């Protein structure tokens, strides 16, 4: 595949540029740069217009070094209405300001509108704050000139370049010419002469000079020397210079060169840089020189850089975010390669880190806004800025634009803003564009087509229209004015099935706090659509006030000092109740005064407990342990002799920890109110000394909690050490008590409750999480794995996928036993592929797995279905920072898109995108990667019109859901005990995927269930079928079944357990909705568990679960 073809497919799959779904339709989005290079994956980008000749692209991608998020500002310097300038605070020293203020200042002082600005030169931070390089304004001339040559971006006669610049200023006094090494610069060098004029400002020059250095100050006004002094006190305050006056300041040995200057002497000043340019912005590292990259490098950080094309007609400004979870910044080497990707021929690095700031006014808006996310958390006061002005005539209106009102005008966009559900609304706003592409008032008419898909709430709307979703499909809204027209595409998904909030509980620390929440409507296929306030009915209890905020959000404000309340949102009859708490109380749980109240437990380690002294002299507990005895996961636990009950509904538990910086992982093990166990996770202990650590309690947790262990884990196989930790003051942060609603049970129909996939043309068996060890080949876990494999072989699937954690510790003896088991139980009877999970590296490198089972990520075609397996053993899909398998995934999706024989894709990896449990502890650890993968699969299915599904394990629970039209299955454990409640998928077994490849193409009223259904195969030791022996005609009773497995685990036969119901004289289904067979004696509805007697006679109800059958006779009188 050619690079051009690969780039095109990657953009199609991963780019979220909104040209395909709407946007500023008349002000057409520009073709952005190709951002698919740099060994990157999971690209998301969006390009918008800013002004004539100026475009902005926002992007996010995963590179081998980590996530990179940034912006590219592209300027066509041949456009005559686009001008560039330098802005500073008026005085170059002592007057730093945010870039947005420089842009405002430039706007006020120019005839054109400032449409963008970016931070400029490095500066003397926290001292003079003056730029250190050479900076020249086309309107104000030379502002600063450095003492040494530094790289700078320059303009000359409209052509851009990167070159070295420094001071070339001179003074000629009484026939003698002296070089002035710097002009208004803090880089004023020892034993040199520097020039300072009124541009410098009031910062005392003396602070730039060491206290013991000799100095000489020569002042010049109107071409004459007006003073010559060695009085250092003159430099301890602002230079007293009249308009047009200058001061020559000599340091060290250079003082002798000005000693002969006398008052009244003629002084000819030549203030210039080392090259004749119209504009210059100082920088530092030269990234590219005539296409050749620098060999310099530095650590990853936020960056600002400028590149120019080979002919100097195009300018590329790059702003890279840093210190964010989705933005690690770039090294100088990475930045250099990126500039090459963008087509730069020469490039220079400007000031970065917290200084990096990009401001722009997107087309169709009125105000400038900060585009990037400054790593200080706010704009830093910088020394100067490169500004862009557009001087096109504002009138008349030249174009129009149309977009959803909730869609941000810049950034990566919000594709869901272009989606609707039937009956919900979307506001679209029409805007005029003046000659600079700024927003201008305009009126027109709206049309919505086709009428069955979308309609206008008010056909008389003139500048803003409300669109109502109808039946599922695609529609277009057109906005017509006398100037022009624009249109935006909207999609109507399926009917609403539930309402979700951005938060399940809102906890505000005090009465001065506020919070926001957004609402999302979801259809049966997992399409999530933002809900606008007009579609919402709000009922708020006393204590809070709720009102609409920006972009469809709701603002929550407390009206009491402390307390609890709740808010109920209702949309189309679907309700979401959100508890709200204000304030919390610290409740002590354990003070560790009596070490005898605790006992030590370990995993693959040894350790002891003893008394210690806490952070303020109080009691503490010391944990001494040895983590050198294994490379598998190790643990040191402090276990209370009596479990500690936690009253109320805490937001978090807290514990003081005296760390040593060895990065153990602290976890508090608790039993939830539903009897299941979980862990509350804290941050790795990367500090030394005492620190109070907060362990948040996830929303949706069942209360009350009971603390059963304080756990300190080491999961890194290459970490080996002994340590001593001390702990003190276990407490709970308990807010005012509030009734927490029971989370609704989601039952996605991709898992069959009643029936099987026996008639599907293609079947794939999935097992995971057996977790046996090679040193115990006759264990119960090995027996469970063998039993599962025998059941799978008997089912004769087309393929078996072992989806991770087949073994437990990743030693060679474990994989050798795994291979032996597979050879003995499967052999050549069915093909299989083994996908690594986290336990396949839990104590050994991935090479151990690969030496026996081959590559850790694979792809193959199973007839018309493409199978892709990925390695998530490290908890991410980019192990060790490598993007190779993600790029393989994208390439294979591109191959599936192009291959007419392929109708669907099934992807397997161990860790799911989302863990359905409240603690969400068993999911892809990189949440940005998880979201990007979710978008990638949904976009593939929507754009390529071929089905795709994702199959995972790891959680210990059978579960399924849909997201963006994509079915996602979590396979439960096939050996190890499950982690969830039995009625919520917490059972052992395996899954059988049933695929109909002919139904893979996504055309017409496509139903994802026609392509893929899943039959779970719960392990069955016994079935208990509970039905009455006799009924009277017309009588309805509750009936059902449960299975017994693994000793005493009792699992109700209901979703997600798949079963086949039948029998003689039995009609299966809801007899009130569908007329039963007239010969039927009883009707049984597995969905509701209702058994109804229809007519006299004998019936036999039969249930089969995973090949095991139970039957009961029912007499109807």
Automatic annotation (TrEMBL):
A Pfam family in this protein?
Answer: Metallophos
- Tell me if Signal is a UniProt keyword of this record: yes
- Using the record's annotation, list all stretches that form the Phosphodiester glycosidase domain: 263-388
Gene Ontology molecular function: any one: hydrolase activity
Keywords of this entry: Signal
Where does the record locate the signal sequence feature?
1-19
Instruction: Please list the residue ranges annotated as the Calcineurin-like phosphoesterase domain.
Output: 763-941
Q: This protein's superkingdom?
A: Bacteria
Q: Does the keyword Signal apply?
A: yes
Q: What is this protein called?
A: 3',5'-cyclic AMP phosphodiesterase CpdA
User: Which organism does this sequence originate in?
Assistant: Microlunatus parietis
